[in-house]
Amino acid sequence: MNIIKFYDNFLNKIISLLKKKKKVNVMITGGNSIKQFYSYFNSKIEKKILKKINFFLSDERIFEKDSDTNFFFVKKTLFKGFKKKEFNLKNFFKKDKNLITNLDYFNSVLPKMDIIILSYGSDGHIASLFPGLEPQIKRKNVCFVYNKNNKFKFRISVTKDFIKKSKNKFLFFLGKEKKKIFLRKKKKILLNKEFKNFKIVLS
Predict the structure, then answer these.
(1) Which DSSP state fits 28?
(2) Sign of the dihedral through C-alpha 126, 171, 173, 45
(3) From CA 38, how far away is CA 32, in angstroms rounded?
(4) 173, 49, 38, 156: which is closest to 107 by C-alpha?
C-alpha cells in the first residue's frame, strides 16, 4: 500500500481502538526515510484525534546533541506547527540518568503497542537493530546498541521480542532508493521471519 492508503487505514484503526480505550499507543521511528509520511500525516491529522494518541519512539541516538536526536526530528516533522500540549510524544532517554538506569526504566514502563511504524534502513536495519550486530546490553524490551560504523554510534532501541508483541506492524520503504531496495530484495524481505506479520508501505 502507499502512504495515502496507509494513513486512511491507520486513522480507521485509531478510531476503532478509541471505542475500546481512552488512549492508543503508537510506536514511531526516526530518520529521514520516514519524513515523507510524517509530512503527510502532519497535514491531515485532526487535533482531537492527535491528543488521544500516545507516541513512543522505537529507538534513540544517545550521547548526541539535541538536534541530532530522533525526538527532535519527530517534533519538527510529525508535529510541526502543533503546540506542545496538543500531542503526546514520550522521550526515550533521560539525560540526567545513566545508561543502565535508562535501560531498566524503559524496560519496565514501555506499554504494549497498538500500532508500530518502522522504516527499513538502506543497510537493512529497523529501529536501531542492525543486521549481524548484537546489542551490547539487552533487557527483554529494550537494548543498548553500539555500531562503530555508523555516524551515530550509540543507540537505545526496543528489542525484536518487543516488536513481535504488536499485532499491527508496518514497514515503510519510501523514496526511489528504498523502493529499489524493496523490489530487489522483495523475496528475501518477505521470507525473513523478523518481518513476519509486517504490512509493507511502499511509495
Answers:
(1) E
(2) negative
(3) 10
(4) 156
CA distances from 31 to 43, 57, 61, 167 (A): 19, 11, 10, 23
Among the listed residues 53, 58, 195, the one whose alpha carbon sits nearest the alpha carbon of residue 117: 58
CATH of residue 56's domain is 3.40.50.1360
- The count of structural domains within the chain is 1
Task: Locate the DSSP E strands across 51-181.
Answer: 53-57, 59-61, 88-90, 115-119, 137-138, 142-146, 154-158, 169-173
Q: How much of the chain is in helix, strand and coil states, percent to nearest 5?
A: 40, 20, 40
> CA-based angle 5:6:11, to the nearest 5?
100
Instruction: List pLDDT tens digits, range 143-196.
Output: 999 999 989 999 999 999 999 999 999 999 888 888 888 888 887 887 777 777
Joined grid coordinates for residue 184: 530487489
Strands 142-146 and 59-61: unpaired
Query: Which cell numbers in the block locate residue 40?
Result: 503527510
Question: And the C-alpha cell for 162?
Answer: 518487543
Range of the domain at 90: 3-18+25-202
Rounded to two decimals, what is the model's pTM? Answer: 0.93
Angstrom distance (rounded) from CA 92 to CA 72: 11
